[in-house]
UniProtKB/TrEMBL annotation:
Xref: InterPro entries: Cyt_c/b562 (IPR010980)
Name used for this protein in its record: Cytochrome c
This protein's record includes keyword DNA-binding: no
Coiled-coil residues: none
Keyword hit for Signal: yes
Alphabetized GO MF terms: electron transfer activity; heme binding; iron ion binding
Biological classification of the source: Bacteria, Pseudomonadati, Pseudomonadota, Alphaproteobacteria, Hyphomicrobiales
Keywords: Signal
Signal peptide as annotated in the record: 1-20
GO biological process, one term: electron transport chain
Length: 155
């Protein structure tokens, strides 16, 4: 049921913004459209905070960060036509898995779901010819511990 609700919300948001989509290509001076890098930077921050909240078993905070991360992904797809909505929709099983793990307060399932989400993020980056942006499950609580900075193929 949650999957259906998520997809309906995504469709409704897309429909509500479809009329304005043409204007987004050339924003007027009174229309703010965040840069894609800013949206993705916020998503990366949410990814790390989601991991930290889950690791600390702060399930309420984890649920909040997951909702915020979903909103970032929807914004990216709505504001930037170069990101196929299908790329965001393919993340839904991982997002649902995380939501279920948070609801169950299950750290093991949470870790698995975060790994699946991370894999999905990287698959999207590869499909958009941005494979040099590699997100990883954080290994520590340092800022940007959820990104690999060495070139692909080097640890």
């Amino acid at each position: 049921m949650k999957l259906r609700a998520w997809m309906l919300a995504l469709a409704a948001l897309g429909a509500a913004t479809a009329v304005a989509a043409q204007d987004l290509k050339t924003p007027s001076s009174d229309q703010y459209v965040p840069r894609l890098g800013d949206i993705m930077g916020a998503a990366q921050t949410r990814h790390q905070k989601l991991w930290m909240a889950g690791k600390a078993q702060n399930w309420e905070l984890a649920a909040f960060e997951l909702r915020q991360l979903k909103a970032n992904l929807v914004e990216a797809a709505v504001f930037y036509s170069g990101i196929p909505i299908g790329n965001v929709a393919t993340l839904e099983p991982a997002l649902q898995s995380l939501s279920d793990a948070i609801d169950a307060k299950d750290g093991r399932k949470f870790a698995k779901g975060l790994g699946e989400l991370t894999d999905g993020c990287n698959a999207c980056h590869r499909s958009l010819k941005r494979s040099f942006v590699v997100i990883k499950v954080p290994s520590e609580q340092q800022p940007f511990a959820n990104q690999q900075f060495a070139p692909t193929g080097k640890p």
